[in-house]
Amino acid sequence: MGVVYDIEDAATKYLQDLHDPARGRFVVGLTPGGRNLAQLGTDIGTALGKSTDVAGNGRNAQEKWGWLLCGAAAEETTHLIVLRAGKLDRRRWELLVELSALTNSQLWLVVQASGLSRSQREGIRDWGMKEYSYEAFKCLSGSWPQTKAASAAPPSSSFPVVPEDDFAGFRASARMDLTDQDFAKVDAVFLETKRATDSWIRSSPSTAKDAVAEWLLSLIDSSQLVDEAQTRIRAAQVAFFLAGIHVKVDVRRLTVAWTTPNPTAVDAVSLAQALRAYVNTDYAAIGVLAGLGASPTEIAAIKVADLSDGAETCTISAKALEIVSACRSILQAHRLTRLFEGATDTSWLFIPGSFGEAVDGAVSIRSVRRHIGQATSDTRLLITPRDGFRGRQDPIQLARNLGLVWPTL
Fold first, then answer.
1. Consecutive 10-residue runs of the chain (409 residues): their mean pLDDT?
2. Whole-angstrom distance, CA of residue 241 vs CA of residue 246
3. What's the pLDDT score for residue 402?
4. What's the rounded Cα separation, in Å, for the pair 339 and 311?
5. d(Cα 163, Cα 171) in Å, to the nearest integer?
6. 77, burial (CB in 10 Å: exposed 0-12, middle 13-18, buried 19+)
7. pLDDT of residue 169
8. What are phi and psi of 5, to 5 degrees?
9. How far apart are CA 78 and CA 361, in angstroms?
10. This prediction's pTM
C-alpha cells in the first residue's frame, strides 16, 4: 500500500491512463461531495465496469459493497488507484484497505499533502503505508506492463435501439427518433424482412398459428440483438397485415425466453462485456450460463461444487461445460459471493432472497427465466436458454408464448 502526494492535482491524466482492466489495474475517480459508503461503492463499481442503469443493484449499501468485494477479487485486481482519496475519511480508507487485503492487490491513495487530517496521517502510520512523491510514483509505475490496443477485446456488434411502438407506427417512430445513419441500418433490415415475409406468405401452404410462429422464430434465429429481432418481427407484422392477417406479438414475452438453434449466437466476449455491468452477481452469472447454452432448468439445479474453483468449468446435467475465459471472472464473482454468504459445496449456486439471507432452497426455474429476461432487456443481447419456445415443440404452446392473436380481416 502506498500514498502518492500530488500537490496540485495536475497528474490526473497520467494516473487515469494507468487504468488497464486486462492487467488488473483499476483507477477510481471519486464523485465530488460523495463520501458515504453508497457513493464510494458506486465509484469503485464504475472503475470495475459496473452500471447503475441495470437491474438488481438494490438499495442496501452494505449488500452492494459485498458484491463489489467479490467482483474485485474475481477480476484478479493487482492495483487499485484512488484519485483525490484525501476527500474520504479514515473509515472509508479502512474499507479500501480491506478491499486491498481481500483482493491481494496494491492500494494507492492519491492525496494532497496539505489537506490530510490527523486521523488520516495516523492511518498512514498505523498501516505502514509507503509515501511517494508524484515523480517517484511515476518512475515506479512507468515499468508496469501495458495492454496493447491491438490485444484489447473487439467491440461487440451493434444495432440501434429501436422504439417500442407497435408495427403500425414502428417505422415512422424510428425515422423520427433515430439519426439518419441509424435509421438507414434499421430500415434496411425492416424492408429486407418484409420482402422475405411477403415471399413466405405467397409460397406457404398454411398461415395457421403454428406455421406463423415458426416463421417468426426463424426471423429471431437470424438476429443476434434484441432490437434487430424486434425490427424483423415488426416488419413481418406489416407484411401479414397487408395480406389480411392481423398478427399481435407480445415482444416483452419474447425477451423472457429468446431461442435460436445455436446456443452460442452471442459471442462470449460481447456477452461478458455486457454482463460485467451488473453489480448483482445473480443476474450476471445466470446471464453467462444461459448465453453459453444452459437451460433455466439446468441453471436452477447447479450446486456450488459444480463450478470449479477457477470457474473454468461448470458441471451441468453430469457434463462439464467449459467456461470461456472472458466469462470466468463473472461466475467466479458469484461463487465468491455464495461462499461469503456461508454456502458449502453442497449448497445451491443460486438461491432465492437477497444477499446474506440464509435460504436453503434452490432458486425457482421461473425466477431464472425472469433473470434471463431482465438481462436480455438490459444488455440488448439475445441471451439464449435452450428450453425456450422451440424447446417445448408444441405449436399451440409456442404460439401462446409468442402472444400470437389474429382475426382474419
1. 74 85 91 79 91 76 87 91 90 92 92 83 91 91 74 55 89 92 94 95 82 81 80 93 85 52 59 90 92 87 93 92 92 93 91 55 82 81 55 54 57
2. 5
3. 59
4. 14
5. 9
6. buried
7. 92
8. -90, 115
9. 36
10. 0.69
Whole-angstrom distance, CA of residue 13 vs CA of residue 28 = 13
Name every residue whose Cβ is closer than 8 Å to that of residue 329 and which is 6 or more positions away in sequence. 74, 75, 76, 272, 276, 311
> What is the structure's pLDDT at 10?
57
Please give the grid coordinates belonging to residue 152: 484489447
Spatial distance between the Cα atoms of 44 and 72, rounded to a whole number of angstroms: 9
Q: In what side-by-side order are the strands of the sheet with 2-5?
A: 25-29, 79-83, 106-111, 2-5, 130-133
Q: What pLDDT does 99 receive?
A: 92
Longest Cα–Cα distance of the chain, Å, equals 83
* Residue 108 and residue 81 in contact, taking contact as beta carbons nearer than 8 Å: yes
Q: What integer pLDDT is reported at residue 153 of this predicted model?
A: 41
Closest CA to 369 of 259, 212, 226: 259
- Quote the CA–CA distance of 358 and 327 in Å, as a whole number: 27
Neighbours of 280 (CB within 10 A): 22
